[in-house]
Amino acid sequence: MEQTTSYDRTGRTAYIEGCKKMGVVPASYFLRHMHDTNLSMKHHGLGSMGMKPIAMSLMTNTQIVKLDLSDNWLGHHGGLAVCEMLKENCFITFLDLSDNKFGTRMAEHLGKILNSNSTLTHVVLAGNDFDDTAAVSFADVIMNTTKIEHLNLSRNVFGELGGMLLGPAIAENSSLKELDLSWNSLRRKGAIAVAQGIKHNIYMKKISLSWNGFGLDGSVAICDALKNNQTLEEIDLTNNRITAEGAVIIGKGLSVNETLVSIKMGKNPMQSAGCYGICAAILRNPNSIMKELDFSDILVNNDFNDIYKQVQEQCPELKLKHGGMEPPKKPKKPVHPMVKLANYIQKNNLRLVDFFNKFDKDGSMSVTYEEFQQGIEETGIKLSSDEVSQLLLELDSDGDGEINYSELVIGHTGFQEQQDSINTILTATQPRPMTT
């Protein structure tokens, strides 16, 4: 009787033979789960040698749809094995290759396979040291792909030039729904180019630009993008060196935008004033559909709370996150009225007796409360009525309703000695500089 062999849908046979050929021990986890639709092989330490047999197996595997190979130190040769596998496999739709030490050399190979593959819709390439040179290949992918809907290029080293290359590609893309460029070094002209790409893109729903360096110039470009883009729903601008001025500028875009539902701007040096500016812009936009404001790690004040309550009335579904309330400002310690007297005497180079004579019109070496108050007004020393009353009580030590010269001398000298004592204590408690 003729024997028939069933088709190996998992590639198990190819894997075992590949391991023998490469001289590596088969991964028992892979053997147990190669029939799953969702396979996670992250943190398995495969390296290039361990990856090659798996790639051979996946060429014929028809079960796995979602594949996670992150953090396996695949390197250049392991990456090449993945690319060869993707030429044959037409079932995998989700692929995570993050943190695999690919480097710039691998970008060209990945770019070619991503352009030719017709099944991948989700691709994660975070943390692979791709730089501005690699941006050429990924810009080509972004511009030409018609299948990839979610692309993650975060935690790489795209800089100003990289942004200038990626920006025009973003403008032309017709399939991406979500793009992650966070944790790169996009700034200046690169940041502006990316924002201009967002402005002209008509498909993307979500973009993460957090942990870059958009700054003021980038804020101006983001404002322009928000004014013109009619599809973007979520934008993450966390930690982008955006000041209060930059936030107000971005707010001008929000004041006319009718599609954005979430904006994240936490960890920016925009302070409560910047948060206020964003809310004020939303309040000016009757067509805003905003549902999430994220100002994480930014302290806000009561003025912000007041305007946010108004925004909530306009957008009832709006959720807010911020860094808490600013601590109340400590009131300045009032200056003792005796200090003001002492400063006046020193500034005008007067002796204490000369100062007293300004009050003692009759030369009796004693002045009434009324004469003292009148003298204070004539000197122009700025003392409130409470401060004058405090001085009178402190200087009139015998409580007879008059201040004589000796009481002024004793009061002035005693106060000076008290201040000198405080200054001595403060000086003694100051940390001494280190000596080498």
Automatic annotation (TrEMBL):
Species this protein is from: Mizuhopecten yessoensis (Japanese scallop)
Protein name: EF-hand domain-containing protein
Domain EF-hand: 347-382, 383-418
GO molecular function: calcium ion binding
Keyword entries, A-Z: Calcium
Lineage per the UniProt record: Eukaryota, Metazoa, Spiralia, Lophotrochozoa, Mollusca
